[in-house]
Amino acid sequence: MPGLLQFFLRIFRKFNPVFNNRVFSGFIILVFCILTLWNIDYPGLNTDEATNGVPSVNIFRDAGDIAGGKVPLLYCHVVLFDKIFPVMQSQYCGATVAYLAFPFVRLFGPSALALRICSVFFLSVFLFFLYYFCYHWFGRKVAILASLIAATNLAFVQYGRIGLYRTEIFVMLFFWVGLFCLLRYAQGKRLFFLVLGCVLFGLSLSIKITFLYYVPALIVAYLLVGRKPEILGTLNIKELGLMLFSFCLGASLLIIYNIMNPWVMFKQLYAVLTDAQATSANTIGEGVRNVEYFNNLGQRFMHFFELLKGDISERLFWGINGNFFIEAISFLAVVLVLFSLILLLAAVFFSAHLPKVIKSRIIFIYVLYAIVLFLSPFTMSGLNQGHLLVMFPFPQVALAIFLCYLWDLASLKKKTWAKALVGITAAFIILFNIFMNLYYNRQLKETGGSGRWSTAINELADYLVDKNISSVLMFDYDLHANLIFLTGNRVVPVIYDKFYPHPVALAYNQLSSAQGQVFYLAIYPDDTEDKRLLLDRFYQKQGNPDGKKYWKLAFDYKSTHYQDLFMQYIKESGKKKQLEKVFLNRAGYPVYWLYRVS
Q1: Beta-bridge partners for 401
Q2: CB atoms within 10 A of CB 21
Q3: pLDDT, tens digit, 9 for 90 and up, residues 501-553
Q4: Which H or E run contains 447?
Q5: Nearest 5°: CA angle at 552, between 548 and 555?
Q6: How open is the CA angle 498-209-387, to the nearest 5 degrees?
Q7: Inter-helix orientation angle 214-221/356-375, to 10°
Q8: What order of strands is seen across the sheet that includes strand 494-495?
Q9: How many Cα neighbours within 13 Å face the side chain of 235?
Q10: From CA 443, how far away is CA 100, in angstroms rounded?
Q11: Tell me: the pLDDT tens digits for 121-135?
Q12: pLDDT digits over 210-257, tens only?
């Protein structure tokens, strides 16, 4: 692969010496866009995507709609010129992503397509800056290879297309672009880049509090290595003051939130670090005990390994089955990446063939991401594989540096066979990445996902609007934001769970007085026949003449406690329940059950 890259480099140097980097970076972005935009509607709109999308619908809405109850899920906000401006969408996630998605939602309407095109667009911008970051620090070969490996990486592509589901990918995006701006400032001392870089850091924090992993990591990496002229150089008091001001400007939404609720985030951070049960307040599960640091660190290492392997934890809900051959190759690929990371670090300390400037820059990146990894067990909610997207694109950049180092070493010693081996390795990684994405994309469309990932959510939203059902009762939050977002606030479910403080009778009476009858929505059926169907290992698409069978899809964990309370209330009240409609995914598998109670 490096030999092929050098061939193309010679061609472009001869015929297009000015636009070399633009052509290469543009080609890499094109590859990324093809992989992400193909079947972009699949899987279905997820709850976390929709939760970040709802504020984008509320931006610039009339403030009078608040009193009329037409603006659900409006967390912290301000009113300016009688218009709504969201500030935070949850306790630890700002509304910054909503403003990024706003023009796309206006253009394409409230849909999964709008949110995902937004994510693909901004990650394409990230790849552009990643290319030039690597180009300025490590040269063109590393820039091309690192960007191409990142652009085809399974986790980056699949999480990238649903970026509003795991906003850590936006946190990473703004951090890296900000770091690139600091690099440019160190090279030319133009204050514009210093200000822009720190504004982007502030925006990264205002997306999600996960950015705090980067803060001590960047400070320590700077103090140990970064003060060298070839990295970021020294900073005086005036520059530090300007950086702080610019950072606060970028984090203005977060600052406004803490002014409106004095020091609330500091109190939350203190609580989750000292109270073993505090994180459960921010999640539907039990949360995480931050005091059990080493146990959580072990889970993070496993998550990092799985992320490199491409074993995305959500894939079963997307309808993607495992494959023994793919699993084996993925394992070998991860071993290769980890082995390369270790050998590259060894080369930094023991090899005389790496220039000192390159060694310093490699150490800077290693220190930065080592600290991020060791801080990652601390959380305000739970531990999820996707949270470690903040580690990207470190493995890809380090792998590219190592392969190009081996290529240059083989060229220096005139070892043709070694160069061929390096080229085959690089080609294998990129082609396997592409193959994995094609495998995922093909299966995504075939099934349409299950539970809160199913494409059936679109049919469900349309059905409720057509039948003038303005609200349904639910027993978990799985489809709450989905219906609000897709219907443009026309359907607002009532959730009866541990966060709902009132008796179930009150929820029932509110819905009954509003629309005359009560509907409730389940992602797990009540009927014995449907339950038997779900326990089968395989299922067959309804009306499928070829008799093809599909693997049973995975289901989200669900407590039936609150649903059982509701069933008991119905029985005691003498009311009747009947199945209104079952909504199927693309493979004809039931995923949502709508019941009528009267």
Answers
A1: none
A2: 16
A3: 567 777 777 777 666 788 888 877 665 445 554 444 444 554 444 455 544 45
A4: helix 416-447
A5: 150
A6: 80
A7: 150
A8: 494-495, 473-474, 518-522, 590-597, 577-584
A9: 21
A10: 30
A11: 999 999 999 999 999
A12: 999 999 999 999 999 999 988 988 889 999 999 999 999 999 999 999
Distance, CA of 129 to CA of 494 (rounded, Å): 44
- Least Cα distance to 286 among 222, 203, 363, 382 occurs for 382
**Per-residue pLDDT reduced to its tens digit, 169-188:** 999 999 999 999 999 999 88
Q: What distance in Å separates the CA atoms of residue 153 and residue 295, rounded to the nearest whole number?
A: 28
For residue 393, whether the previous peptide bond is cis, meaning omega lies within 30 degrees of 0, is yes
Report whether 399 contacts 340 (CB < 8 A): yes
- Find out whether the peptide bond into 216 is cis, omega within 30 degrees of 0: no
Name the region of 549 (left: φ>0; alpha: ψ -120 to 50; beta: rest).
beta
Beta bridge partners of 79: 84
In Å, what is the CA distance from 187 to each residue of 180, 233, 574?
A: 11, 9, 77
The percent of residues in the chain predicted with pLDDT above 90, rounded, is 45
Residue 372: what pLDDT?
96
Rounded Cα–Cα distance for residues 489 and 481 (Å)? 9
| Token pair of 38 as six digits | 């193909």
For CA atoms 494, 496, 502, 504, the dihedral sign is: positive
Nearest CA to 489 out of 5, 58, 18 is that of: 58
Place of tokens 């694109």: 393
Reported as a pLDDT band with limits 50, 70 and 90, residue 114 is very high
The pair of three-digit structure tokens given for residue 565, joined into one six-digit string: 């309370």
Q: What confidence score (pLDDT) does residue 529 get?
A: 46
